[in-house]
């Protein structure tokens, strides 16, 4: 009896082993090397009719990182007619308000969510200099002060679940309807001529955002700190806590090293834009009597303050061309630009509501319902993927991909994706493989997370939709993308 049972068990094990395809065995080997033990993988690959080819935890919920941008950009394409109808109202403009105590008028700079406003010397289209020239051109010699008005969107500068240490960076800079120079400022750190002296820490021209606390020293990093392989040659630290007026710079700066440029996010972009416009006005002989200020709309408040000159039918003092959504979509998809993703989300929220992130997410949710995504397959808190609260299953993402392929906007959406070995965030990946030029996908990276979702062309010539996410990556493993890419190449070769 016992011998019979053992024989049956052996036969069962052999049958199970026989059911495991060579592709599945290869994927198991590729995705589970010792150095990534503990990674939780989610993977779903289907043909364009939704038939499963490979599935690994396809219905579990994962932190999607910047794969979240797929939902935002798809919603923009879904409601592109409404977005285009709204676009003529979205140009940045200036208007005069009641006179100040000295009799000079108040100049208000109104932002409407243009991501490309700039005062850079090489600016060509949507430039603060154009507005400053217009003020000087009408013969205005003095203004009370400049107001930066971003009330077109509610004051939701950072998303729920954004990590505090990202808020000082270009990746987590504040979101505002009055955006200028990507809402960043640049510190330039240069070693002193004499070793042992503090390094020179200064703002790039026009970028003075915070008071600098300089605790640097021009010297090599201590030898005891550099013994580990791969350690940087200096231990430079730049820290700004959101809401504070200082930036603290500390650490060793090697003598003779090239200047370092550190890009910081801004806490109040509307104030920064007003400040920059005031400087331009002063350079044109217009006296600015008081300091710049910013004007915000509290979340939940009615957008009455945003119903200004362009909506009332009055002619503003000067206005710039409206933003180009096509440019923003490329920046969001190809280069994973977080700020522009958040601006697009709020524009979606302004189609029929108040321009809030929540109103934009309601549009995204409506799209996912159209695509057949299950209600428990996702929870979204922002448009960029910065939030650690976001969750999505591979099946939710693939549902959107296959649905979009049936829509008249699907090919245009796909055309914004990075292309393997060619451009965007995939330009260095998949080179020399079957997928070079044959994978169109959005990347995603956060601490402990890598993601990639989109379309690939298999060896047979058929197009497959896929979503692949790695969560819980140990810090000892710098990235899960090598395993991810190898697995997708193997899937393409096997199909």
Describe the protein's architecture and organization:
About 4% of the residues have low confidence. The longest helix is centred in the first third of the chain and has 18 residues. It contains 13 helices and 20 strands. Strands 2-1-20-19-18 form a 5-stranded antiparallel β-sheet, sandwiched between helices. Strands 14-6-4-3-15 form a 5-stranded mixed β-sheet. With 495 residues, the chain is α+β, with helices and mostly antiparallel strands. The relative contact order is 0.19.
Question: What descriptors fit this protein?
Answer:
495 residues, alpha+beta, 5-stranded antiparallel sheet, 13 helices, 28% helix, globular
The amount of beta strand, in percent, is 15-25%
* Lateral arrangement of strands in the main beta sheet: 2-1-20-19-18
What is the terminal separation in angstroms? 45 Å
Q: Helicity level, as a percent range?
A: 25-40%
Topology, number of strands = 20
The assembly state of the depicted protein chains is single chain
SS element count, helices: 13
Q: How confident overall, as mean pLDDT?
A: 91
Structural class, from helix and strand content? alpha+beta
* Biggest sheet statistics: 5 strands, antiparallel
Q: What value does the Rg take, in angstroms? A: 26 Å
